[in-house]
Write a structure and sequence with these properties.
Length: 641
């Protein structure tokens, strides 16, 4: 049974359940929508489950954000659509929701206790110092992903269902022995053959290309050679520059802020205590009795098979569960609490010591208060400049004059592509809004003030457009000539190898053909498909020997500047005494692959039963992307007379 669960843990079914939950937030299952006919059109419909336009855009934006983080550059919806990522996402989500809808109707419904147990297993929700569940970390993690606790529970419930069905698919499954025997027989089969190498000197070399040949070669590679469109902009920045003086802060402002923040700045009361959390009140009552009888908290925790929460000098605000925090800070030193009903069960606390809070003096708080007041002043000055700029624009001034009137900075950015790349291919360090604004304007166009968040504002003027263009022949003559020569040499080499192989296929002896070509013939027996053989004879020879039947001729590339031509002379079956143990070793891997295939079939079949479907056209409409142009249809064949 343990083996089955280990295999299951490596499968596609278990990936969502055992991965860190923060990573699984990229794709969140949509909830049941019983009012589907009264609401907007659904992009994904799977029985009682569906995804509407708003949910789809939110989920797909998470996917885009993850791609941008991995690529280290902006990724647009157009880029994703060109790669058909929207279709892959739609298909995977449609099958997933269809499977989950089928599972729910089949009665596979995990209880709330199981879901809470899964939440308690997620390391991201626990304080790294105390090892206890931290409500603040829990709320922050959910807020960062725009999720609610209900959405998380639903997602965990879906993962639990998937794991439950997956374990049923894996349990007791084992690939037939004949499957492993076929693989073992193929791995230990040996072959005899003869071959020789065909070099570039045998095939001849291409001469220098003419301008006409290079021009034709340029046309063939137009898409690769064409430079992208670049745009040059003037950027208006309203925030202070790096060398600008910081706003002056008066003593009166500092004193006023200190009086307002004094309570919050003070060192809070801290307590050292332990907590023991159990699912039921009965268990908590027993723990209370044991602690009040003088038993050691660690021993009580061990006896109840639970983890002891050890809090050292902790303020009330750092206690994850508000109910537990309030109860602990109402106790006296060495006092044991009654059972406290919290969010994840019943908690018993015992206070060891109390550290009184301390007030913070004005001088101690001064640096932080000055920094805070200066940041607020900068934001105020920035917004005042924005208002002056907009007023000047309303009066008819252009972007440059309005920026001067508002005392804003105007900088010229280097040319960049729509994806934010500079001419040298390096990414430009600019906000996404800058790129989008630049490519939304026509030449000479000026944008309105755009809020970039966190008190940052900017305006854009599109100064110039460098259109996409092919380079001139003189600009790329040398590298283009080199590529043309490489292509022609490869063509000559391939043609020569095929010519020699054709002579052998026509009945000539391979020894004579090799001698006529000036090549040395290699004769090998007992060649096996292995890394050792690959290193000895080369990949091209190994592919040829094991890709043809007895007596057949093979030809293929052996290295960048050589081909191999050869003949399969004999095929020897594997030794059964050696193949049998190998077959048993390969069987677990085959079982895993078979189970994964069955899992995919199960999901697809369940989705088909719920008549799951999606609407790619509506998805593109929601993303604001035009549908890719369909490839031109091939001309119809003339009718036979």
């Amino acid at each position: 049974m343990i083996t089955y669960f280990r295999n299951f843990a490596k499968s596609k079914w278990a990936a969502g359940l055992f991965a860190l939950i923060i990573l699984s937030f990229l794709i969140v299952g949509a909830q049941s929508d019983i009012f589907a006919n009264l609401g907007p059109r659904h992009i994904i419909s799977a029985g009682d489950r569906s995804v509407d336009s708003g949910q789809f855009r939110t989920d797909f934006e998470r996917v885009r954000a993850n791609l941008q983080e991995q690529a280290g550059r902006p990724v647009s919806y157009d880029d994703m659509v060109k790669e058909n990522l929207h279709l892959q996402y739609l298909d995977s989500q449609t099958q997933r929701l269809g499977f989950l809808d089928w599972a729910y109707k089949a009665g596979i419904r995990p209880g709330k206790e199981l879901i809470l147990a899964e939440i308690r297993k997620i390391p991201a929700f626990f304080n790294q110092i105390t090892g206890q569940f931290d409500q603040n970390l829990y709320a922050q993690a959910l807020a960062q992903q725009n999720l609610t606790s209900q959405m998380l529970e639903d997602d965990l419930r879906d993962q639990y269902v998937t794991a439950h069905v997956g374990s049923a698919v894996f349990a007791g499954l084992q690939a037939p022995r004949v499957y492993a025997a076929l693989l073992a027989g193929q791995a230990l089969e040996t072959r005899d053959g003869r071959w020789f190498s065909v070099t570039q000197d045998m095939a001849g070399r291409a001469g220098a290309p003419t301008d006409a040949q290079l021009t034709a070669f340029m046309k063939e590679n137009e898409a690769r050679l064409r430079s992208p469109e670049f745009r040059m902009i003037s950027l208006v920045l309203f925030s202070p520059g790096p060398n600008d003086a910081r706003p002056a802060i008066t003593e009166e402002q500092i004193s006023e802020r200190y009086e307002f923040r004094k309570a919050a700045l003070a060192e809070p009361e801290k307590r050292t205590f332990v907590t023991l959390t159990v699912p039921t009140k009965e268990a908590a009552d027993k723990i209370v009795a044991d602690l009040r009888a003088g038993k050691n908290a660690a021993e009580v925790a061990k006896a109840n098979n639970i983890q002891l929460g050890d809090y050292k000098a902790t303020p009330q605000a750092a206690v994850g569960d508000p109910a537990v925090g309030a109860a602990v800070f109402a106790l006296a030193a060495d006092q044991v609490s009654a059972p406290i009903q919290g969010r994840l069960g019943f908690t018993v606390a015992k206070v060891a010591s109390i550290q009184a809070g301390q007030a913070v003096t004005l001088e101690t708080a001064r640096p932080a208060l000055v920094q805070e007041l200066q940041a607020e002043a900068v934001k105020g000055e920035t917004y005042a400049k924005v208002e002056q700029f907009e007023k000047a624009r309303q009066e008819g001034k252009n972007l440059a004059d309005a920026a001067a009137a508002a005392k804003a900075r105007v900088i010229q950015l280097p040319p960049f592509t729509e994806q934010g790349q500079l001419p040298d291919g390096q990414p430009m360090n600019a906000p996404r809004q800058v790129l989008e604004s630049a490519y939304a304007l026509s030449k000479g166009g000026e944008s309105d003030v755009i809020d970039a968040g966190d008190g940052q504002y900017f305006a854009v003027r599109l100064d110039d457009i460098r259109p996409s263009a092919l380079p001139t022949l003189d600009e790329v003559r040398a590298p283009l000539g080199q590529q043309w020569t490489m292509r022609e040499n490869a063509r000559l080499l391939s043609a020569k190898a095929e010519e020699l192989a054709g002579r052998i296929r026509a009945g000539e002896d391979i020894t004579k053909v090799a001698a006529d070509a000036g090549a040395q013939l290699t004769v090998r027996t007992g060649v096996q498909q292995s890394r050792e053989s690959q290193a000895q004879v080369g990949d091209g020879v190994l592919r040829g020997l094991f890709g043809q039947a007895k007596g057949q001729v093979f030809s293929g590339q052996q290295a960048q500047d050589s081909f191999v031509v050869g003949r399969v002379d004999a095929i020897h079956a594997a030794d059964t005494a050696l193949a049998a143990p190998l077959a048993e070793q390969a069987r677990p891997r085959l079982t895993e692959e078979l189970a994964n295939s069955m899992a995919d079939r199960t999901i697809a079949s369940a989705a088909a039963r719920t008549k799951s479907r999606n609407d790619p056209a509506l998805a593109l409409q929601v993303l604001g992307v035009e549908a890719p142009a369909a490839p031109a249809a091939a001309p119809a064949a003339p009718a036979k007379k």
